[in-house]
């Protein structure tokens, strides 16, 4: 019996009811008013706290097979790169950390193109061919999001910065912030 008690104390508590004290009534009313499960309400609260100052943008490809959400500023800093692939695709993008991106659906409908160093992962929808996001060479631990693939209503302004991708190494070396854009 002593071993069982010691073992139970050493294990972290599992999921279960949380004592909300005087806030329990407010919590229940909030869930009911917005028709949210406990998990949905908790996610809403955590997102609002963890991503303070950011908005949740949603978007996807043209046919709708690929959908995602991304937490970023309502005022986007977009890169207009002139490297060979960005020029051909007219790829303009803003960069976010991987922790602020969530693929909602379509993982099985994505395919990837790489070339040269194979560090950039150019993902696109197998059905409609649209690249709504990709993994940039400059920030392989983040995502480059195409602002034109975001749903309407969450973007306030877009500031576009040209970047000389034809001389990628030099441009990234000289740019003051691009390498750190995928850091939370």
Automatic annotation (TrEMBL):
<dbReference type="InterPro" id="IPR006913">
    <property type="entry name" value="CENP-V/GFA"/>
</dbReference>
<protein>
    <submittedName>
        <fullName>CENPV protein</fullName>
    </submittedName>
</protein>
<dbReference type="GO" id="GO:0046872">
    <property type="term" value="F:metal ion binding"/>
</dbReference>
<feature type="region of interest" description="Disordered">
    <location>
        <begin position="1"/>
        <end position="20"/>
    </location>
</feature>
<feature type="domain" description="CENP-V/GFA">
    <location>
        <begin position="57"/>
        <end position="169"/>
    </location>
</feature>
<dbReference type="InterPro" id="IPR052355">
    <property type="entry name" value="CENP-V-like"/>
</dbReference>
<feature type="compositionally biased region" description="Basic and acidic residues">
    <location>
        <begin position="1"/>
        <end position="10"/>
    </location>
</feature>
<dbReference type="GO" id="GO:0016846">
    <property type="term" value="F:carbon-sulfur lyase activity"/>
</dbReference>
<comment type="similarity">
    <text>Belongs to the Gfa family.</text>
</comment>
<keyword id="KW-0862">Zinc</keyword>
<keyword id="KW-0479">Metal-binding</keyword>
<dbReference type="InterPro" id="IPR011057">
    <property type="entry name" value="Mss4-like_sf"/>
</dbReference>
<dbReference type="Pfam" id="PF04828">
    <property type="entry name" value="GFA"/>
</dbReference>
């Amino acid at each position: 019996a002593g071993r069982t008690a010691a073992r139970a104390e050493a294990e972290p508590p599992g999921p279960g009811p949380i004592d909300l004290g005087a806030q329990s009534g407010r919590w229940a009313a909030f869930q009911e008013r917005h028709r949210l499960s406990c998990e949905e309400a908790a996610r809403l609260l955590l997102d609002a706290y963890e991503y303070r100052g950011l908005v949740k943008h949603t978007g996807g490809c043209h046919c709708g097979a690929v959908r995602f959400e991304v937490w970023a500023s309502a005022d986007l800093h977009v890169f207009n790169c002139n490297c060979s692939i960005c020029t051909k695709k007219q790829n303009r993008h803003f960069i976010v950390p991987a922790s602020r991106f969530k693929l909602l659906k379509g993982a099985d409908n994505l395919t990837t193109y790489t070339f040269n160093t194979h560090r950039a992962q150019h993902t696109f929808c197998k059905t409609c061919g649209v690249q709504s996001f990709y993994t940039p060479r400059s920030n392989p631990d983040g995502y480059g999001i195409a602002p034109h693939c975001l749903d309407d209503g969450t973007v306030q302004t877009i500031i576009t910065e040209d970047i000389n991708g034809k001389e990628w190494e030099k441009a990234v070396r000289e740019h003051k912030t691009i390498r750190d854009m995928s850091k939370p």
